[in-house]
Amino acid sequence: MARTVFCQKLQKEAPGLDFQLYPGEIGEKIFNNISKEAWQQWQHKQTMLINEKHLNMMDPEHRALLEEQMVGFLFENKEVEIEGYRPPEQK
After folding, report:
1. Domain ranges within the chain, ordered by starting residue
2. Which stretch of DSSP H or E encloses residue 32?
3. pLDDT over 70 percentage in the chain
4. What is the DSSP string of 35-77?
5. For the domain with range 4-76, which CATH number is right: 1.10.357.140, 1.10.760.10, 1.10.3720.10, 1.10.3880.10?
6. What is the pLDDT of residue 89?
7. Roughly how many angstroms between the first and final C-alpha of the chain, as a whole number?
8. What is the pLDDT of residues 15-46, one digit of tens each?
9. At what angle do helices 24-33 and 60-75 cross, to 10 degrees?
10. pTM
């Protein structure tokens, strides 16, 4: 049977992650309190951030920025803001 968690991001019971995807205390908090659905939402935002801001994951400052944005998005209900980004127009 799938493991469920009360997702802090979505505010509902939902299937949890299969294993801890992020290291340390933050990773443990994500594993215990964030659903697969919310994690997928974050992954989409993360990809946008990396691409639009040209982040280098080898740079500790860029990783710190990404972690700050992740915690804000998953636990503080903050939206990821990408300066100058506009979603594609719907046809």
Report:
1. 4-76
2. helix 24-33
3. 91
4. BHHHHHHHHHHHHHHHHHTT--TTSHHHHHHHHHHHHHHHHS-
5. 1.10.3880.10
6. 73
7. 42
8. 999 999 999 999 999 999 999 999 999 999 99
9. 30
10. 0.85
